[in-house]
Amino acid sequence: MNNRFVSAILGMICVFAVHYSAYSRTFTVNQSDPVASDNNQGTAESPYRTIAPAAEGAGPGDTVIVHAGIYRERVAPAREGEAGRPVVYMAAPGEEVVLRGSIVWQPEWSQHDSCGGAFCAYLDNEMFGDFNPFHTRLARAGDIQGRSDADRLTLGQIFIDGARYEEVPYIHELLQEPGTWYHDSASDIITVHFQSLHNPGRSIIEITVEKQVFAPYKRGLGYIHVHGFTMEHAANQFPSGFYNDDGSGYNQNGVLGCRSGHHWRVEKNTVRFGKNIGIDCGYEGESSDEPEPSPPRSATGYHSIRHNRVCDNGACGIAGARGPYTSIVGNIVERNNYLLHTAPENGGIKVHGFTEGIIEGNLVRDNNASGIWLDAGFTRAKVLNNILVNNIGHGLLIELGGGPCLAANNVEAYTRMGTGTSSTGGDGFSGQDANRVTLAHNLSYFNARFGLFSCTITGRRGGSCTGWEAHNNILLDNGGSDLRFINTPLTTGAVSGNITTPGNFLQTELGGVHYDTLMTVLNFDTAQMIVEINIRDTVFAGSYERIAGVDTDFSGNPLPQNPLPGPFQTLVPGDNTIHLQIDSIFAAVPGLPANIQHPAIRRTIPENNEYTLAVLAGTAHLPAAPVHAKRLQLFTVSGRMILGAPVDDGVPEVPPARSIMHSVVLVRWVYSP
């Protein structure tokens, strides 16, 4: 054969191969298009009706564009991307695309004999396939606040006209409390106590059928981008013992799950109403319930979780274990742990083995758990420029590891006390069995207990709690005190430049220095994200040293050679108003009820000394003390405590409700004689 002819053919093959490898396709999904069908080609002119065929066919470099609508399916990417050629799943720009793990349930209803607002219906197992969440028990339900091991709860969820109803384990609880449902396991009868008397057939009733909403079946896929969706209604399990190598635990599976993958980019999604976890971004665990084997743990991580709203999940907002080089940046994480789990693995953001990771610029508020929790390893981790407000237990909890870890320029306030092993505290910044942690230029204000608290709590290996440093922090008006170290051998120079409330600078092993009240936080408006601070001239006469690794302040301004304490470097003597920057993702989210867009609802203070304050999502702003006020009584008429225990011992204890969505709080100022 002619050699030149052979060379020409080989050249054509090479050109074709190069062209094909760089070829990218766009799949279009548009359920509202009259010609849409899963038998189509998935083009703009011939779109798919569901996402499933696009997820099956999309590969490296491909993009799946989904147009407006509610898609009731689990999106399970079958193939991964490549470096520089990810598989991209995105909502069509400007369109609301909702992915739901629920179906609309339209059973035959009958009214309950003992309650006019309660109705019963048979739950047909044929609706569920291989997985019926109402037949699957919720793990560690006995550790939920107010529950015991005898209480049976399931993975099921029920939504009535968009509102989540609460599952109760006993019919007598349901009959007493509207907005609840009960499943009788013997008869498969669901009983729902509706909020108002009406015909159930007039409501949209949705029940969960999927474990996850966006997650591959195959574990370990990489280079997948997910952009712009609302994902909700998953029947995922509480991750009890997910770290057990023998497979006896339950995995960390989120509404959106990276499934032990790597190099995912998750941006501008709303992820909510998971029975337990919103987003998982680690190696998941070794549960024997999962048919897919786990990839090597060293292959997970390298994720970017940015600008998402992760809210209203049963246990945890964002969870991940052993996912190195992961960044969690610019997210809103709020109202998670609505089930009130007290067992570990709850939190706004909960990560294990967080090596070379960064958690930066997030708003973490109103969670019934610690805001950010670094556990079991945090090598070269950074926690920077976050706003942590009105969480239970700890604003930032760092537990069990050798570090180093840097937490700087965070604004933290109103941490509430809770119950259970993971949520008691009431501390702004807290360390347990953790080593080599540096806290610098943070503001911690009006927490139930300490502004900063570090101690050894167990005899776990590596839990000696050494190498702590605290520099240039502002810690004011905290309930227990502002700064305290226990069982923490400190070295000279480990604590410097902190401004604290007089008399509340407590530590062991090393003498501290009191500061006068050089700063006063006048107001912290968590609805408008404004901090008002009064500063004395004395602050500017002090000498505060630069801390390694901290080069800018909360707003990105460069730190001078002699910086000011706290997260703001643009302060002047006198009153300052700092507007905490709010990203565009803080705007209203389509489909989110208006009453939970902004959880801090302010009310005008009447002239008398007693008033009620309606709290729609768990944050209350206390008024300034009237003249001659002696002390404050704060307790709930219905709903939950706002700032831990009542201030006045004469106020009766009121059991906290299991929901913070609708509370009425009575606040009373008690005047001096």
Walk me through what this model shows.
- α2 links the parallel β1 and β2 (63-66).
- The protein is globular, with a radius of gyration of 27 Å.
- The protein is mainly beta and 673 residues long.
- The model is unreliable at 5-21, 503-516 and 584-673 (pLDDT under 50).
- 48% of the residues are buried.
- The protein contains 4 helices and 48 strands.
- The strands form 6 sheets. Strands 1-2-4-14-17-20-23-26-29-32-35-38-41 form a 13-stranded parallel beta sheet, with no helix packed on it.
Secondary structure blueprint with pairings:
Blueprint: H1 3-21, E1 26-29, H2 52-57, E2 63-66, E3 69-72, E4 87-91, E5 97-100, E6 102-104, E7 110-111, E8 118-122, E9 158-160, E10 163-167, H3 171-176, E11 180-184, E12 189-193, E13 205-208, E14 224-227, E15 230-234, E16 254-257, E17 265-267, E18 270-274, E19 277-280, E20 304-306, E21 309-311, E22 316-321, E23 327-329, E24 332-334, E25 347-352, E26 358-360, E27 363-365, E28 372-375, E29 381-384, E30 387-389, E31 394-401, E32 405-408, E33 411-413, E34 427-434, E35 437-440, E36 443-445, E37 450-455, E38 469-471, E39 474-476, E40 481-485, E41 495-496, E42 499-500, E43 519-525, E44 530-535, H4 538-541, E45 574-579, E46 610-615, E47 629-638, E48 663-671
Parallel strand pairs: 1-2, 2-4, 3-5, 4-14, 5-15, 10-11, 14-17, 15-18, 16-19, 17-20, 18-21, 19-22, 20-23, 21-24, 22-25, 23-26, 24-27, 25-28, 26-29, 27-30, 28-31, 29-32, 30-33, 31-34, 32-35, 33-36, 34-37, 35-38, 36-39, 37-40, 38-41, 39-42
Antiparallel strand pairs: 6-13, 7-8, 8-12, 9-10, 9-13, 11-12, 43-44, 44-45, 46-48, 47-48
